[in-house]
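[Meeting: bench + compute handoff]

Bench side (C.D.) handed over the final construct sequence. Compute side (W.E.) agreed to return the predicted structure before the next meeting so the bench team could plan truncations. Sequence as handed over:
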Amino acid sequence: MGVEGGMKCVKFLLFFFNFIFWICGLALIVVGILVQLGMHKNVMIKDPSASGVPILLIAVGVVIFFIAFFGCCGAWKENYCMVTTFAVFLSLIIIIEIAAAIAGYVFRNKVSAVVQDSLTDMITNYSNSTAEFRDSVNKLQIDLKCCGVNSSSDWRHYKPEGNSVPDSCCVNVTLNCGVGTMTDATKVHQLGCHDAMEAFLKKNIMWVIVGALVIAFLQIMGIVFACCLMRGIRSGYEVM
């Protein structure tokens, strides 16, 4: 016997929200992988602690991916055990996400220091490194329109005369455009890559916050719908 009205609506809403969770989990996995590759390929960060955030994203994405499976199957088959498992695991995920947000805020200065040290190593090893490494540094400076760690003066040991920078620092990148132009603001970007990266993150942080709030809202609604469906199942309803 099918349940009319509200309970049937709850069932399909829970199924829909779990489909969204499944997509969110997949998105977190993809974002985590891209961040991990970007940090170690483009920025060349060697500090193992810097991998914590992308690895956490991948781990949470995998967990949400499988939790959504419990939620979808539990809602569709009206399985009390699976719906309960979904609600409990989703509650734990919310607690973990809150803890991760607190940890990220507490250790925000550590991330800044890791980026600072990694950028310094990039400049120090630039001349004696592989072509792939130099291409990564050049791409970073071109994309962020920056030069050096804190300013273009960080490249003072790049050439013997102490007044040249890589061509990727130039406003208009051409062959040998960085020779003898270190402090020429009309030809070379004076902003350091550390500040440029911070500015980029601050510019996009609002989208991250909005995304996090949307996911948190969906998770809370998922728990509410799961609890409603659990009560319905326990009360002896049979959802078609």
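W.E. noted at the follow-up: The radius of gyration is 25 Å. C.D. will use this when planning the next construct.
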